[in-house]
Design a protein that fits this description.
- With about 200 residues, the chain is an alpha/beta fold.
- It is built from eight helices and five strands.
- A five-stranded parallel beta sheet has the order 2-3-1-4-5, with helices on both faces.
- It is globular and about 45 Å long.
- The chain starts with a strand and ends in a 9-residue tail after the last helix.
- The chain binds adenosine monophosphate.
């Protein structure tokens, strides 16, 4: 079967970045994280990096037009032609519409949306651990609060849209990394999204 087109959604500290990479590896598809793309651009000091640096440090959202253009570029690369796993995009309803339009023009749509659920106190504990380990500028207490508020206000509603389409899999994001990955893959396989032997 063809490779799946997936999206992973979860609040900050839910482990969606880590699980996104593991699930993408299992299916042999690229994991595309807009947060990673922006952080790399900042680190490289590119034009894009200069445009987004202050926005990311404040925990605000990069403008939709810029974000959607970055994703369209990335999804147009050869390795994403079959399937991909998006992490962190779309993040609001306008971006859902942008992605729909882009995929529709290519004759496709998302196959499944993985919603990773972790209790609030556990995700905050994971974030403060990451703050110590990685020193991200957006992992300070104040910025985390802003990012979580934006998640509740702008990102959680996109799940209702995808739920109406019947493509959301609610996954318990607690426990060992392997257990969580197994749960995600079991849910995707139940949808008929079977890993190929080569992946
Ligand atoms: P993340 O690693 O997914 O938490 O993303 C880190 C930061 O990158 C976010 O707090 C935003 O500033 C920016 N960002 C990532 N994805 C998006 C998106 N889809 N739309 C707007 N801003 C984004």
């Amino acid at each position: 079967m063809r490779a799946p087109r997936l999206l992973i959604v979860g609040p900050q500290g839910s482990g969606k970045g880590t699980q996104g990479v593991l699930v993408a590896e299992a299916y042999g598809i690229p994991a595309i994280s807009t947060g990673d793309v922006f952080r790399s651009a900042v680190a490289a000091g590119s034009e894009l990096g200069r445009q987004v640096q202050a926005i990311i440090s404040a925990g605000d959202l990069v403008p939709d037009e810029l974000t959607s253009a970055v994703v369209r570029d990335r999804l147009s690369q050869a390795d994403a032609a079959g399937g991909f796993l998006l992490d962190g995009y779309p993040r609001n309803l306008a971006q859902v519409r942008d992605l729909d339009a882009f995929l529709e023009a290519r004759g496709g749509e998302l196959d499944a949306v993985i919603e990773l659920n972790v209790p609030r106190d556990e995700s905050i504990a994971r974030l403060s651990q990451r703050a110590q380990e990685q020193g991200r500028t957006d992992d300070t207490e104040e910025v985390i609060a802003n990012r979580l508020a934006i998640y509740e206000r702008e990102t959680a509603p996109i799940l209702d849209v995808y739920r109406d389409r019947g493509i959301v899999d609610d996954i318990d994001g607690t426990g060992s990394l392997d257990d969580i990955t197994d749960r995600v893959i079991a849910a995707l396989e139940a949808r008929g999204l079977i890993r190929s032997a080569a992946a």
